[in-house]
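Two proteins, back to back. First:
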Amino acid sequence: MTAATRSYDFIGFGDEVPGILAIISAAREYRRRIGTYPKSVVMLRGNAQDGVGGHLVRGRLAYLDRSSVPIATRRSYYLEDFGDPPAIYREFLQRAGVGKVALDPGNANMTLREMMGEAGIDILSHAKVASVVKQGDKITGLQLARGETFLGKQFIDSTVNGELAQMAGIKKLPGYASLGLPRSELSVTLVFEIEGLSPQTLKNLELAYLRRFTNLADTEAQQWMNVASGGDASLAQYLRNTLTRAYGQLNTMDVGTDYIDVYSRAFPIAYHAFRGLKHYLPESKVVFDNPNIAVLPGNRMFWNGLLFFVDAAQAEILARNGAKPTAEMLKEMTYVERWLKGHGATSVKAAPELYIRHAGNIVGAVQPLSGAQMVAGGVSSSQALGTFGYHFDTRGGILGLWERATDVGVKKFAFKAPLLNIGMRHTFLKDISNLAVISPASGFTGSASAVGRIVEFNVAVGQGVGIAAAIALLNNRKLSDITNEEVHNILVETGRLPKIYGKYDGSETSSMGDFEKRMYDVSLAVPVDFDWVTV
C-alpha cells in the first residue's frame, strides 16, 4: 500500500501564535476574494492535545509583552496604552478574554482552535519532517517520517529556529553571529504556575525582604546577600542598587489589574541564598530573575523569571526536541517548588515546554532587518502594516557582548527603544519563493531580533504575510515578490490598517549603525548546516 498523500493550499509549520494567525489571515483573504475557504493545515512537532499556540500556550507564557508607545505619541494619535495593535491580534486577545496583559493558556488554546475551525484549518500533531520536496525555487511538499506526503503551495515557518527553512536548505547564522558572537545565545525560561498566594501576600513578602536586605545591621540578611553574590562585592552592590528607588524609597512591586511587575532583586536574592547559588547566569547556569507575573482569576499566577543559560548549540537542540525542559531544569524546579511552598504556595507547576527566546537567524532574506533600520523608524508609512515599540531586550544577557564591544572600539551599546513601522520582507527568502519565516529566526541582523522576537510584532508581520500568501496563490505569483505596499493597501481597503506612528531617531540610528557595523565580523558569521539525521 502506498503512503497517503494530502494536498493543501497553505501549510503552516510550527504552531506559534504568529504562524497560526498568519495562516488564518491567508485563509480569510482567500475567502474574501473567491468566496470559499482554502485547504490549510498547521503542523506541530508536539501533541495538539496539550494545546495549540506554542510557547504562549504549552510554554505558559501568560504575561504578554505588549507594544511600548511613548505617552506623548499616544496623546498625539489618540492611542490606547499599547498603541494600535494589528486587527487579528486585537481579535485574538478579545476572544481569549485578555484584560491587559494576562493570557489564560486554556482560553488561548480554545480561541485559536475556534478561529482555525472557522477558517477550515486542519491541525496535525507529531509532524516530524523527513525531507522537503522542492521544484526549482519552490517547496512542493513535505514528506513526514511516518511516510505521509503533504503537498502545498504556500508555506509559513513559525518555529523559533527556522526548522522548515533549514530543512529546505536555507543556511542559518547561529546565536548572535551577526554581532560576532556565534556561540552566544539568550537564556531560556521555564515558566511556572503557582496557586495559594495572593498578590497582596506577595507584596507583603517582598516588602519584608526589602526591609531586611537594606538593613545593614541585619546580619542574617546580609549573609544571604553574601551567598547570592558569591562573595563578589561588585555583584552585591548591583543587587543592592535594585532594592531602592530615588531618595531611598523601597523598590516595591507594581500590582496591576492582571499582572505584577517586580523591579527589585529581593526575591532573587532570597532564592539564591536558599539555593546557595551565585546570582550570575554564566557561572551558575540558572538565575531566579525578578519575575513578570500574570495574574488570572482565583489567584492563579504564571511566573516568567526562572532563566537557564544556553549556548547557540544548546538552543538549537532544545528547539528541535519540542522545547522540552531538561532533567537539570526540572530538578531546579523542585527547589523552586520547595522555596515557594515554604512561603505559603499550595501548588507549583512547571510548564510542559520552555520559552526559547531566540535560536539564530536565517540567511538570505529578501530584505534583512537590522537594529539600525528599526531605530530609523522601519518602513515608510505607505508600506507599513502596523507600528510596534519595544526595547532591545536581551534578558539574561548575551555572553561576551561587553568584551567584544570593547575590543572593536564601540563606545555605546545600550540604545533607546525603537518605535518602528512594520514590514514583512525580512521573512521572505531569495532562494525559496513560497516560504516565509515568521519568528525570532526571521531575517534579523545585528540587534534586531531582540525586538523582532516579540509575539505582537510577529503577529503584525504574520497578518501581512498571510494576505501576501493569498495574493501569491490566487495570482500565480511568487510570495517573495509581494510588496509591503500591496498588503498595506489591502489593509486600508478592508479597514484593518492600524494607525501608523513610527519614529525616526537620527542619533540612535547613527549609533546603532556604528555598533552593528563594528560588531559584525564576516569571518565569524559563517552559515551552518545542522545534522538533521541525528534529530
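And the second protein:
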Amino acid sequence: MSLLLSGATLASAANPFFAKKYGNPHETLPFDKVKLEHFMPAFEKGFAQHEKEIKAIASNKALPTFENTIAALDYSGVLLHDVSAVFYTLTGSENTDELMALSMKISAMQTEHSNKISLNEALFNRIKAVYDQRESLNLSLEQRKLLEDTYESFVMSGAALKGKDRETYKELSKQLSELSERFYQNSLKATNQFEKIITDEALLEGLPADVKATAKAKAAAKQQEGWLFDLSAPVYTSLMKYLKNRDLRETFYRAYLTRATSGELDNRPVIAEIVNLRRERAQLLGSSTYAHHALKRRMAEKPEAVIDFLDQLTEAYLPTAKAELATIQGFATGLEGRYTKLEPWDFSYYSEKYKQARYSVSDEVLKPYFKLENVIDGVFGLATKLYGITFKQNKSIPTWNPEVDAWEVFDQDGSYLAVLYTDFHPRKGKRAGAWMSNFNEQYKLNGKDVRPHVSVTMNFTPSTETKPSLLTYDEVTTFLHEFGHALHGIFSDVTYKGLSGTSVYRDFVELPSQVMENWASEKAFLDGFAKHYQTGEPIPAELIQKIKDAENFNVAYGCMRQLSFGYLDMAWHSMSKPFDGDVVAFEREAWKKAIILPQPDDCFMSATFSHLFSGGYAAGYYSYKWAEVLDADAYDWFVRNQVFDKETANSFRKNILSRGGTEHPMVLYKRFRGQEPTINALLKRNGLL
C-alpha cells in the first residue's frame, strides 16, 4: 500500500482524485495512488464543485421540475463522494494519529457543507414546489419515492426552519458531528491502548493453540517475551470463552467494559452532550424526543411501537433466558464445587463448557472445517446456487491493504454486475466489528447502468505460522451476514443513487443480511465447502446435526442481551428534558428489565457503543431484532419451498434485493412473502413455539 502518513508535502505530485478517469478496471477508486496529502485538497475541491452544482440547481430560472431539481440533486457531488469513500475506508481500516487529526477537521467541514445544502432556502423552495405538485406530475413509482424522500429528508434536516432557528440548527449539527467523531476516536484509542503481557504459560490454560500463537507473535513483534493480548474482537471473545483462569477473565472483562471511561478518552461526558444535543435538535424540528424524530423514517414509525415490540419479545423470551442462566449456574457449580453466583466473566466460559458437554460441539472442533479460503468458496458458491452469479478475483483492481482482495461479480448470463472487496482480519488502526460499505452506488444515467462497488470488512481470526485462518462458526455466520448486505448492493437495479441498494429504512436494512445466516447450518450448504484443512475430509454429518441441535443453545439469553441494547438505545433517545444525571446509573436503570446477569457497577457498555453514538443506529438498534422477525418469516418461506429453490431466490432478488428504497419496505416484503410477518416464525425457529 502506498498511503504515506509522514505529513510531507507532494507539491509536484498529481492528485489522483482530480483525474478525469481513474484508469482502473470498472473505474474503481485509486487506493494505490492516494496519500495523506491528497485528502484536504480533494475534499476542498469536492465541496466547491458540489456547492457549484447546488447553486446551479437552486438558481435555475426554469420552473422547478423533477428532472432539473430532484434528479439533478441526486446525481450531484461525484468527486466529494469518491474522496469520502476512500477517506472513511482508511479511517475505519487503516487509522493513524494523522488520519484522526485530519478526520476531526473533515468532519466539521462536512457538517458545514451538509448544512449549506439542507438549509439552502432557494433549493428547498424548488424541492417543495415539485413536491406540492406531485399529484399532477405523472411520476413513476420510483420518481415519486425519490421526491418524497428528498422532501422529507430536507424537512428533517431543518430546511423548513426560519431565522434564528436555522442558525441554531447549524450550530447543533456542527457540535454533534464533532462529538460523534470524538466518541469514535476515543473508543478506538482506548481499545488500542490496552495490552497485557502474560509470561507464565500456565496462566493461559484452556486457550486454543492458535490464539496463543497469535499472542506470541504479537509479543515478539514488540521484542517482548511471553504472550501479548489486546482487546480486538477475536482475542477478547476467545479469552472469555476458553481462558480457565478466572482472575484473568475478570481482568480482561473489566478492561473491555471500562474502555473510554477515564482520563482524556472518557466518553461519558461525550454521551451526555450527544443525547442532549440530539434531543434539542429534534425539538427544534418539532418532535418531542430524538426517537420520535428518527422513527419518522422507520417501519416502526414511533417509539411506542418499538417499546411494544421489545416488550413482546421480553415476555416471550425472559422465562427461558432465566432458565438458561440457572442451567449454566448449576453446571458451573457442579463442575467446580463453588461459584455460588456466576459473574459476567464466567458466563461465556461455562456456557462453552456446557455446550461441549451436552452437544459435543465447540469452536475448536468446528474450526478445522472452516478454513477461510474454503468458506469464501462456500459463501460465494451459495450465491451462485441461489442466484446464478459468479466471482472472479481481479488483482489489477487497487485496494487499501495487501490483505484486501477485489472480486468482479458476474450475473447468471455472464454480464458484469459489480465489484466486491473483501477485508477479513484485524490490524492496528482497524476498528472492531464487521460492516459493509458502498464505494459506488448503482444508478442509471443517459442510458447507462452504472454498476456498484461494495466491500465487506470483518475481524476474523488470522492465520499463524503453523495454521491457516480457521474461522469459528460465529465468524462463518458473520461472513454470511455481511455478504447479505453486499448482495443488497450488488443486485441493485434502480435509476437513482438515493434509492440504491442499502438506501432503505434502518429497520429493514438488516433483513437481507440476517436472512443469509440461516444457511449456515444447512447440510447441503456445509457439504459444499466444509472440509478439514489437513485431511480434506468433509465435515461429518453427525457434526452438522450437532450444530443444528445446538442452534438454540442459550438463544433466549442472547435475545435478552440484544433486547437490553434496544431498551438502552430507546432510553438514551426518548428523553424530552435535558439529561444531567450519572450516565452509568442511567444505563443500569434503562436496561434492567432485560438484564439477566448484571455487570459490576464500574463497568459501562455505552462508552464504546459506537452503533448509537458514532454509527448511525441511534433510536434504531431495535432493528436487529425487528429484522430477525422478518428474516425468520422470510426463511420460513424458503424452507417451505426448499432452501435452494431458485424461484424463491429470484423472487427475493426481484422484490427486495434489487428494489432498494424504491417503495415502502412492507410493500416490498409482502410482494415477496404474500403477507406481513409475525413473531411466530422466530419463536418457532428458536424453539419457543
